[in-house]
Amino acid sequence: MSGRVLRLVCTAAVAAHVALAPVSAAAVPEPERSVAELLTDLQRLYREAEQATESYNATEEKLKRQRAETDRLDRELADARLSLYDSRGAAGRLARQQYQGTSDISPYVHLLLARDPQHALDQGHMIGQLARERAQTVGRLAGTERRADELARKARRALDGQLTLTERRKKERDQVRARLDEVEKLLASLTTDQLTALADFERNGIAQAQRTFMASGALSTARTPSPAGESAIRYAVQQLGKPYEWGAEGPTSYDCSGLTSQAWGRAGIPIPRTSQEQWAQLPRIPLEELRPGDLVVYFPDATHVAMYVGDGTVVQAPRPGENIKLSPIASNPVLGAVRPDQQTEGREAETYAAPPRGRDQQQNNPQPPTNS
């Protein structure tokens, strides 16, 4: 519980304690929950917030694609309507020409009365050619009308889909904010001593989980990243100290999957936006084969992701109120790992040194995060 949120919560807790001091001694206090219970509640709320964030991110990506499809259909519909206008103009000119050239005398009588039958036959050939052109023009007009009607229907459906996604995104945004409000309420209800005990308890729990994980031998073999993986790590490490912000993809703030997707995108390998899509779509690898640059996915529903940098360490955007930092790989329950650059198997960087722990403490912290 570090950073600006912790400082604000500590102040609020002290102020609340002072304000409640005059309350009658007859009031029955609620039984105090243990530090373990408080941490369980807090971690649950953070996880629910992250679940809502990833749902929001997935909808945002769908909305981007839907907007692009709507714009494409709108452009095609505009072109089709312009073509329809031209076709109708050509059909109108043909109709006027036909009307002006009408006669009650049949072409056969024209041929019999002509002074030059050959000339009349040539004219008849030209008339036939014009007739075929008229038929083609009418056919194009009918085809353009059908295409314009079909594009109009598709454009309406695309717009309806966009409006539906926009409404879903709004609901998911509200869910994120509601979960973060719950986090703030829980933190604001704690005293300074409780907050300190909570931070110590969590830190000790992570240390124990890390010792167990490392003792398992999962990372017994040191590996070097691929050139693309080294590039992704370099980008991610350059973001140390920047704040977590849900839904953010940089450059001033990130959420967990915003950091990993941007890092690999900058390395020339685009990957899905959300942690759940990264887990579902990228090649999975055993933890025994983990190499720097691979993504470590957390929790049974894949709602958090970090990037492995070596020496049992990941770089991650942890949660609201914290900054991007280097953390033990076992900071959260590990689900598994994926490799964005599986196709580069066999290619490794010539030299690589994992960034030292504590480097994130040396970064200049930018503006504090906002839950906008």
Description:
The protein has 372 residues and is α+β, with helices and mostly antiparallel strands. It has helices at residues 3-20, 35-100, 107-113, 117-188, 192-215, 227-238, 256-266, 275-281, and strands at 284-285, 295-298, 304-310, 313-316, 325-328, 334-338. Strand 2 (295-298) and strand 3 form a beta hairpin. The chain is globular, with a radius of gyration of 34 Å. The relative contact order is 0.13. The model is unreliable at 1-30 and 361-372 (pLDDT under 50).
Observed structural traits:
disordered C terminus; endopeptidase fold (from Nostoc punctiforme); six-stranded antiparallel beta sheet; alpha+beta; 8 helices; 372 residues; 6 strands; 7% strand; disordered N terminus; single chain
Please tally the helical runs, counting DSSP H or I stretches of 4 or more residues. 8
Mean pLDDT over all positions: 74
Q: Whole-number radius of gyration?
A: 34 Å
Helix/strand order, N-terminal first: HHHHHHHHEEEEEE
| Helical percentage | 55-70%
Strand tally is 6
Query: Would you tell me the structural class of the helices and strands?
Result: alpha+beta
Tally of discrete structural domains: 2
β content, as a range?
5-15%
Oligomer: single chain
Largest sheet: 6 strands, antiparallel
Strand order of the largest sheet: 1-6-2-3-4-5
Q: List unreliable stretches of 5+ residues.
A: 1-30, 361-372
Shape: globular
Q: Whole-Å distance between the termini? A: 20 Å
